[in-house]
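Example with several molecule types.
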Amino acid sequence: MTEPTPNPAQQQLIENTDGIYVVDAGAGTGKTFAITHRYAEIVDQPAVEPEDVLLVTFTRSAATEMKERIVDHSTYSLRELADGSIQTFHSHCFDILQEHGYRAPTHLGLDERITGSTRVVEDELVENELFREFIDQFRDTHPGYADVFRALSAPLELLDVVSELASKGVFPTTEGWYRDGETALDGDFDAFKSLFDDVNQPRNDGRKQSRLRSKLNRYGRNKTYLPEAPAKAELRGDGTKQVPARVTELVFDEDREGLKAFIHDVYIEYLDFALGRNYLTFGFLQLFAFVLLCEDDVLRERVAYDYVMVDEFQDTSEIQFKLALLLAGTDNICVVGDWKQSIYSFQYADVDNIREFEARLDRFTDDLDEERERIQFEVDEIERIELTENYRSTQTVLDFSEEALVVPATDRDDVDDSVLNDVVSLSSNATFDNTTIEGVHDPDEHEAVLSTIQDVVGNEEYAVEDEDGHQRTPTYGDIAILTRTRDFGRELLTVADEYDFPMAYDGGIELFRTDQAKLLLAWLRILEADADRGWAVVLEQAGYVLDEIDHILNTGDYPANIATFRDELDERAAVGAVARAVFDRYGFSGEYADVILHTIQSVHESSTLTRGDLIRFIERGIENGSTHDVFTSAGVDSVTVQTIHSAKGLEYPIVVLANMNSGKFPPNGGGSSVIQYSEPVGLRQRKQYATVAEHPHVYDNWRHDVVRHCLSRDNDEERRLLYVAITRAESHVLFTGGEDPNTFFEELPCPTREADPTVETVDRTATAQTQLPFSIVQPDGPTGHTPHTLMDSNVFANDGTETEAVEFRGRDFGSRIHDFAEAYALGEDVTPAIDDADDERHVKAFLDSLPGELHVEERAVLPLEVDDERVTISGIVDLVHETPTEIEIIDFKTDRTRRGQPEYRKQLSAYYHVLLECFPDKTVTTSLFYTAEGEREFIEPLSQDRLRDLVRSVSMREQERN
DNA sequence: TTAAATCCCGCCTCC
DNA sequence: CGGGATTTAA
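Resulting structure tokens for the full complex:
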């Protein structure tokens, strides 16, 4: 986006820095732009420094982006902001605890301390593992709770309860509950009654029974209650269309002391366990920071900020709202968000934080001021600002997105149209509006998606606008496929592979179901128990056929080289070292292996992990299909596949919303915690047995079987999800539906059509050179480049003036700093204003320090012979620096915190070998230059053999997919 | 014809 | 475990 001047609404937000503001910033309204300018405006006041201003973002990457953008607008440099307070709630809490948290646990009566070595467990799998360990030990040391445990089918769900309570600000102390925590657990009868009455209204003018009564038809099905439980007939009443009113009290009044005591003990002892093990979870970071700020008035006043801004406020939880208040030293509070994009309730986000901001602010302030005044300012004057000008989408897309908020999710869904009253309509500033919105269906939805894309790419009817405002036909890179589930995305990727479609998946993979993990598991089993099923996998991998494997297993006569490797492994004590050795042997060095190693390493650090533990850990990982984030790159011009959740905040010219299928969007039900906490009702216990007939346990919580029908969730969040997906689109929105498209697909007010049934394989040889940063392209492709032909075609001597070099840049590739470096290296005029920014200064100083010639934005293709097959690795680097004796490959990165070092290394290595061949008389080196730090890091290139291994492991992955 | 009961099917999103 | 489809009851 070019940097425009703020529009009036943005200007209002930027200029009004004092007082309480709630900003309704709809999708694409230049929210980041406005916030960063506002931040700059605040810190550019003489009396204000960055450390006086707290800017909370929701993700780390958002924080990084904010910082980068702020540098553009203010006199501060990235380094000066680095210590400032632009970060997530979690990292901010972490910082507070690091500095002042030593005694924080004592406020809950705990003796443990938070120290500089206390770690944060981020990996969910690791956290689960630790909790499991805790709960096993808890069970042993509390025989009194044996009955409760007997009824708990999945103890891990206790962790959910603890996390949810922590997110709502309900904490235990060694003596009882922190502050008024117990009130929340007991619930609010009046609130419950109103929910109960709502679902208990007779329908059709009294001719039809209430929803609740209807639901209770299932009461007791496949269950056996304790004798004192009421009979079904008693609950449902007779001769009336309603459940009798007295049932309200009947179900609410329950002696929950035992259950509360149980949860309390689990909760407080888990806190103690975590501290004892020297770790904190995300939730506990906030818990202890909150307690600390609540208890220590002097500290609170010291760490409080003059200005507080919270971005993505619709994603905040109750405790985060309160933390923001505690961290505000004045009433200069600004929250920015869009309730229509609140889709993280499963992460305890509470949409009412923004929708009912005023009421909640009052309530939370009163709450925090209960014992003594903690919030030292008035909260009665609240200003609302609405950003209504949209810089992303066409008006047609914007109008359509509102429809999503009221579209029925099921046939009988009675949608509350009144939400539209709360929608601040947006107006587009797009010059063109040739928007197409349509549904495409085909029995095979994967193919429907591919054929739709095929239809769109290069098609004038789906023209998109380029940066200069010109219309052009779309390319693959313009398209994002947004899905609700990761599974669908990965299935799609497999099908795309068959047609050689350029498609990149961005999200989680089932890490432990990969070949890498399976082989590691096999070796661990061999080491641990000489297990046949371990050997079978290893032997099969080594190329032995079934008969041979049988024979070897029977005789125990293992091939010498494998047996030797076994002995070598056996000598390694640490499981991490075993894993590394296994991956080295098989040449597994890709993203998957890296992430596996990293995960193992983090479990290892957090507990004393034996081989047996690791085996069980991987087995559980395989069972649960637990996922870890990876990014599979497929070149610059490729379609992106993402879940809607992960696409939030992004934008694409064309959005294909897939998998609106089988009548199941949304899917059924909500979570099914064994023990459920909910605001008005309090803590409830549910114990369920799938097959009571086989296991004649007694199900004693009949109350919950009534109550849960009063807590049914509506489909609003599903509609908001749809809204988020649509508003990602700049120009066109397409829906695909499979065999049995759901209600959303059918009810959305747009035309639908049949998909073109033929999908053609894509010829990607034409784009082979645009692979980034590392991948396999057509073997022996027609490009036929050798390093020498590249030399001949003058690629290395490219002075950057050829248009080819410029048009090659992808949408996100040319960041400010690259542009700067390029312009400077080419001796162009560089505007003086930019001299103030650290990054530019660093780059400039660096470039000045280099003697010899600079070549900007180079690319190369390295052909490799791998197993008699010729493959090509291609890479692009930002800069090549050449002197008579040396040639250096340099790539710019902003800082070291970014992920992807292994990828950079591959990319640089591919290039390294090309140059090595081209310039036999020169020394070739590879380095990364961190612009924010002004430092150059030399990178050891991978050997050609290592690259070959990489190619092999990637080929294996490809085969695995097919 | 309408309401109530029962049968049938598939099970997410992630800091 | 809920929603839609189907069957049964009135």
